[in-house]
Write a structure and sequence with these properties.
Structural class: alpha+beta
Strand content: 15-25%
Largest sheet: 6 strands, mixed
Radius of gyration: 22 Å
Distance between the termini: 42 Å
Number of domains: 2
Oligomer: single chain
Length: 197
């Protein structure tokens, strides 16, 4: 498993094998671009796998489980979680309440919640609905407990500032960095005459 710092550094060294203090793009810019490309490449991988296999599960190397978070007025604040929100259809939210929870939580939408309003629509008393709105999870029918853990796709496992990534995704990011920066750097016009130096 690689991390984004290593991937960005390798791509930078490939394009600038003998860097100077006047190198067109800094290593830090490559690292920042790699961090932006990471969620995009995870999205691409998810879509490709789902199209090919018919399903896609969040990879275990990016799964994280929060401590139980408080429910206040049927809302949970998730702003403290580092979520990989770029996954399609809010697939980042894997589970609410824990894997051995006596209550099941199923996703709904604002439209469905309005349509069904007080109608249980065949759901048992141990099944509750939720919907994600910004940095909150709203439970229209309440919850079975005052606190619930969240199993989710993290935006990268941070380890001393390094984001560990799957090797396949890492290779995609490295290729993209070289594609973005390889031979496409504008030349400085220090004389301001409309011509590069």
């Amino acid at each position: 498993m690689s991390n984004l710092l290593e991937i960005a550094s390798l791509a930078w060294q490939q394009l600038y094998p003998n860097p100077t203090d006047e190198t067109a793009v800094s290593r830090e810019e490559f690292i920042t671009t790699a961090k932006v490309q990471y969620p995009l490449m995870m999205w691409v991988q998810a879509r490709n796998t789902k199209n090919q296999d018919g399903e896609w599960e969040v990879p275990t190397n990016i799964l994280a489980q929060s401590e139980p978070l408080s429910i206040v007025n049927n809302e949970m604040d998730i702003s403290s979680l580092k979520i990989l929100r770029g996954l399609p259809n809010e697939m980042w939210l894997v589970n609410l309440g824990g894997l051995t929870c006596e209550c099941q939580y199923v996703k709904t939408t604002a439209n469905k919640a309005s349509i069904f309003c007080d109608v249980e629509d065949g759901l048992s008393a141990l099944t509750k609905t939720y919907l994600v709105v910004g940095n909150k999870i709203i439970f229209p029918k309440g919850t079975h407990a005052d606190k619930l853990p969240v199993l989710y796709a993290s935006s990268g496992i941070e380890n001393d500032g390094l984001y560990e990534v799957d090797d396949v995704v890492g290779a995609m990011i490295q290729d993209k960095l070289i594609q973005i920066y390889g031979g496409k750097i504008g030349q400085e016009d220090s004389s301001n005459d409309g011509k590069s130096n």
